[in-house]
Amino acid sequence: MVKAIVIRKTGGPEVMEYVDVEVGDPGPGEVRIRHAACGLNFIDIYFRIGLYPQPLPGGLGQEASGVIEAIGPGVVGFKAGDRVAYAGRPNGAYSEARVMPAAILVKLPDAISFDTAAAAMLQGLTVEYLFGRTIPLKGGETILFHAAAGGVGLIAAQWARALGVTMIGTVSSDEKGALALAAGCTHVINSKTENIVERVKEITHGKGVPAVFDSIGKDTFIDSLDCLSPLGTMVSFGSASGPVPPFSLNELVSRGSLYITRPSLPNYVSTRADLDAASANLFEMIASKKVNIEINQRYALKDVAQAHADLEARKTTGSTILIP
């Protein structure tokens, strides 16, 4: 038996139960992994509250690192004792150990610690696909990135700096603004005290930006569109404030024939080749010190309710991990 977080109904942080569960032997294509650290991400909240449905009772968490304890029939490329990490479904990373598909695992280079991997996989791979494939940034562009002091945001600021991209980041406090600037943002906008659209127009001399990366959702959607230059692209990759409400396509044409996309990590790492290439790119950025993973919060797994409450209240900065 191992400890794990289980939910039997959707709701607030209190629905997460810290219980004993049975972990069996891995079946075909599966491995059993003993977790060293687990990642905390906003998508976990979406599943907990029911915005993203899943069968119940069920687990939570899509990101962790650890050591393979056993492998099932047909697994190739991995063996017991390998240091590994993963980001993706099925849920269940909030646990001391679990059986899971080998298809989403990647081997960890010696230079990447378990804590760093657990904090970096989902958020880092998100930045990798956003900047490398959703809108391939070459350097010289000016972009707007919401929640620049969050886990994804701080990685994005460093990645943008390494690419030679001017990143305007939005934050919710002056303290978070200082973090975003230190990470690599060229400009920050405090959304609590400044008008986002006016400041973006001021920074860009009225032109707007060719791309906006928005994980906030409902509260920032229209502002994001208004910050774009004609033919610009809105990348909506999260819903921290709630899902974007239905809108008319005329909202895009009236602002200059805009584009909009709603990407998701699983579509960008659906093959072994894509997963390995994206992970290698991420690990190289970390090993070369171009990107430093800021783990600013650590919670014991049993204290996950507090971790969720702090994340929802926007009390966290950078990355957060859970220690089994």
From TrEMBL:
GO terms for cellular component: cytosol. This is NADPH2:quinone reductase. SUPFAM superfamilies: GroES-like, NAD(P)-binding Rossmann-fold domains. It is an enzyme of class 1 (oxidoreductase). GO terms for molecular function: mRNA 3'-UTR AU-rich region binding; NADPH binding; quinone reductase (NADPH) activity; zinc ion binding. SMART domains: PKS_ER (SM00829). Its EC number is 1.6.5.5. It holds the Pfam family ADH_N. Residues 11-322 form the Enoyl reductase (ER) domain. It comes from Glaciimonas immobilis. It comes from the Bacteria. The keyword NADP applies. Transmembrane segments: none annotated. Keywords: NADP, Oxidoreductase. InterPro entries: ADH-like_C, ADH-like_N, ER, GroES-like_sf, NAD(P)-bd_dom_sf, QOR-like, Quin_OxRdtase/zeta-crystal_CS. The lineage of its organism: Bacteria, Pseudomonadati, Pseudomonadota, Betaproteobacteria, Burkholderiales. NCBIfam families: PRK10754.1.
